[in-house]
Amino acid sequence: MTYQPPNGRATPVETMTFRQLRDRNDGGTQRADFHVIGLVDAGHGAATVDFASFPLEPGSAVWIPPGAVHRWDDIAAVSGTLVLFVPTAPVTDVTRRIVADPDLVGAWRLPEAERMFVDAARAHLVLETAAAGPGCAGEVPSILLSALLGRLRPPHGEAAAANRVFRVFRESVETHFREHHDTLFYARTLGYAPRTLSRAALRATGRTAKGCIVDRIVLEAKRLLAHDRLTAASCAAVLGFPDPSTFSVFFRNATGMRPGAWQTAALDPVG
Q1: DSSP state of 162
Q2: Residues 71-85, mean pLDDT to the nearest whole number
């Protein structure tokens, strides 16, 4: 799903209500090239993001980053606001780093002390996205988005943010994981010893550098199998494996299931 500004306006930020979402939602999985933040005021439901279910309840927030496979579950009684924006929309260095964090997926409860500030920032953003105009006025939604992000303070990637070696490693993996599956490539590219990368990864995630690479490849494979409905052979080609058999062994070792069996279970979880 590609970001399409409302009414054809050249604005990188859009807001909508959960009621509007229900009118557009077909109940299937989605994969967008933009961020989605949901702020819940009332009601209960759930959002499935990259195959994990997160509760939606009053005072909670959910963040769906670009590329994540997601589905809105049981949101008939949920009310609140959704903020949609492209990765380049924030205007401050801090908020740009927040949205670039590869570990943003998840949900959390807003601290009670912050809610009045979040509500004020959200209300102003909703007002301005409805009235954004050309020139300087068109920049206001991005400015207000940055203010909202600063108040939301998502509790993601805090260990990674403080770990420069791991941060640059993860950025490089995000760029090259489809072509390069070995730690040595990243060590040579970044100018670190493989052991240095693994120590940094262990401190940030509890996983070795190789484990982080495997996790990223597996996540993309699951996205391709569940949302794009690719075959194992097509996944192998997209993810840089020499043949389908090698990919199938890799996927089974990582997940305990063959790609086809995992895909069947993902597409028919009840059956």
Answers
A1: T
A2: 94
